[in-house]
Write a structure and sequence with these properties.
Helix content: 10-25%
Number of strands: 33
Radius of gyration: 26 Å
Distance between the termini: 97 Å
Largest sheet: 8 strands, mixed
Length: 614
């Protein structure tokens, strides 16, 4: 009981302040907890027991845990909170926390669930069982049983500590394209700093006996790097160490195996499991190439528990469908609003765990969105608080992209017959800016004879959307977006421009200056004469409404969760598919068939000057 009391007092002292939040989409259940009113009411007749206490004994990075609990005075609104680290004290509180009198809030609970969630007779018997899934996050956990509901919470019992066998283990590898076509990067998280171990990747061709060791660079950051609350205060959690290794001189379209390693200073090696990936095709290589694209997916809890920014209920379905079809996907683009941590840093670990089966197998390329970057006075194009004080630091560190400067999150990458130009909508893109010049260079520098499929990606809708948010502004897209960029899309004959931000699916006709340039809807043969614009923001976050206004350029709308898949069969044939996350079936599609001469052909505002001289 004394041990329980010590942990409980530490937890209460740590969570006894007020929860901070940023305004965002949908419901945020944890923000409804009046944790500043929580009181210590340990009951000798109440208990909560967790088993097992040691997780990951077989090297797992996630494991299910069972809670058994009882109380003599059960109520329908009793609930269980998950805390990590397990015992923290007021002495760790940052002075910048806006609550100046104790009890100070040092960290935020990770998630919670009602006690009767899987025990419908709990309010009668006072006994219940509950299962949580925990992931390895470099620290221990404890669970507290609350009565009094969310508004007048009282802690009546707390568990002993629960921990992973090796909380520092290397976890959640994320692949990404390097700056050249025959380079793959591997990024992962661990609890080992450079003062403890050397990080590296052991890798080689599948089936080959000779393996290479490629060293990894190591990054981390501290609380002072965050730009504001809650990231700098209640949402702060030690991010551990983020390592990135560069696997170079890969053969095109070849399968390699790899595993993450740390060599401790005592000579001991710590290993991850073995993974595999297929290297990228050479730019212009004629082979089957398949791409998945979506935005705004976020994360969700497979155990059904409630956590911060709890409005991404389509996220798990999207993840499951991508995993099911992974043998038919070569590269993934997640175009902004990655995990909606909004300043609660533990969410990034949970997201990288959720997408590990995908990101460890194919390149997982991201774009920057408002929920990663925006914060007042930090250089973001929009002065809102959507990042929760992260101001881009988490996205720029947790994932690698082949940008010249990751603080300026625009870049391009080639994948066989595709050229992808990825814009950063949270920095100025207008004519005359550094990013505008980058976009033009990306579009202009591709050899369309070798890479005929030119795709523009961005988070905010710089093109066309019938989302009610944009229509209410009278713009049908991000204000100033089309005005700045449509002449580039037209001049360089961009095939498809794709966006997130609006949480639905919509496809336009090939369009230029608000006019459809091709009346076909399913099978485009020859010259497009314009760019097809697609909103694919239904990855998982709460859905966005369409305007009832029906425009001529809007061909297909869907108020549901889903993602896009592009399949290039060769230099002349491309298949576009929109799949719903609920079942993975195709609900919208079109094909493009053309020859190189169709790309060269002149259309409005797309031809260079000519002369009559012979």
């Amino acid at each position: 009981m004394q041990v329980f009391g010590f942990i409980l007092l530490a937890v209460l002292w740590g969570i006894g302040g007020r929860l901070e939040r940023v305004t965002s989409h949908g419901d945020q259940p944890l923000s409804r907890i009046a944790i500043h009113k929580a009181i210590f009411a340990l009951n000798d007749h109440a208990y909560i027991k967790a088993s097992p206490l040691i997780l990951g004994l077989n090297g797992q990075n996630s494991e299910w845990l069972t809670l058994e609990f009882t109380t003599p005075n059960p109520s329908i609104d009793d609930w269980i909170g998950v805390f990590s680290p397990a015992n923290f004290s007021a002495s760790t509180c940052n002075a910048e926390n806006p609550r100046v009198s104790p009890p100070l809030l040092c960290t935020a609970p990770i998630k919670y669930q009602y006690a009767n969630y899987t025990s419908p007779k709990y309010s009668e018997t006072g006994k219940g069982l509950l299962k949580f899934q925990l992931i390895n996050q470099r620290s221990d956990f404890s669970f507290a049983l609350f009565t009094g509901g969310l508004l007048t919470p009282k802690v009546i019992a707390v568990t002993n500590k629960v921990a992973f066998a090796n909380p520092n283990a290397p976890v959640y590898p994320r692949l990404a394209q390097g700056k050249i076509w025959n380079e793959m990067t591997v990024t992962w998280t661990s609890g080992y700093g450079l003062d403890e171990a050397f990080p590296f990747v052991e890798w080689g061709p599948q089936g080959g006996e000779q393996k290479k060791h490629s060293p990894a660079g190591t990054l981390t950051f501290d609380r002072s790097t965050m730009c504001g609350a809650p990231a700098r205060t209640v949402g702060w959690r030690d991010p551990g160490f983020i390592h990135t290794s560069f696997l170079e001189e890969l053969w095109p379209n070849s399968v390699y195996t790899y595993k993450l390693g740390h060599k401790l200073f005592n000579g001991t090696y710590i290993w991850s499991q073995t993974y595999q990936f297929k290297s990228s095709p050479y730019p212009g290589q004629n082979s089957l190439q398949r791409v998945a694209i979506f935005g705004d997916m976020g994360k969700d809890e497979v155990d059904g528990s409630n956590e911060y920014n709890n409005y991404q209920r389509g996220s798990l379905n999207t993840t499951v469908q991508l995993i099911k079809d992974l043998k038919n996907i070569d590269i993934v683009f997640h175009i902004g609003d990655i995990c909606y941590a909004n300043g609660y840093l533990s969410q990034w670990d949970q997201f990288t765990s959720q997408v590990e089966p995908i990101a460890s197998t194919v390149p997982y390329m991201i774009a920057s969105g408002n929920h990663e970057r925006d914060w007042p006075g930090t250089g973001s194009f929009y002065g809102n608080m959507d990042s929760g004080g992260e101001c881009g630091v988490l996205a720029e560190t947790m994932f690698y992209v082949p940008a010249e400067n990751r603080a300026k999150f625009w870049y391009y990458t080639d994948y066989g017959m595709f050229r992808f130009c990825i814009a950063d909508t949270e920095h100025d893109w207008r004519e005359g800016t550094e990013q505008f010049n980058f976009i033009e260079h990306c579009l202009a520098s591709v050899d369309r004879q070798k890479q005929p499929w030119l795709i523009f990606l961005a988070h905010r809708v710089l093109g066309y959307s019938s989302g009610s948010y944009y229509v209410d502004k009278g713009s049908f897209g991000e204000p100033m977006g089309r005005e700045s960029l449509q002449k580039l899309w037209q001049k360089y004959k961009v095939d498809i421009a794709m966006y997130g931000h609006v949480h639905n699916y919509e496809r336009t006709c090939p369009i230029y200056q608000n006019i459809c340039t091709n009346e076909e809807k399913r099978y485009y043969k020859g010259i497009l004469n314009g760019t097809i614009h697609v909103v694919a923001g239904g990855g998982g976050a709460s859905l966005s409404y369409f305007t009832p206004i029906q425009t001529k350029w809007s061909i297909f709308r869907d108020y549901d969760y889903g993602f896009v898949k592009l399949t290039a069969f060769d230099h002349s044939n491309l298949l576009f598919e929109y799949k719903k996350s609920r079942d993975g079936k195709v609900y919208d599609s079109f094909r493009i068939s053309r020859d190189y001469r169709d790309i060269l052909a002149c259309t409005v505002d797309s031809c260079p000057s000519t002369t009559l001289a012979s």
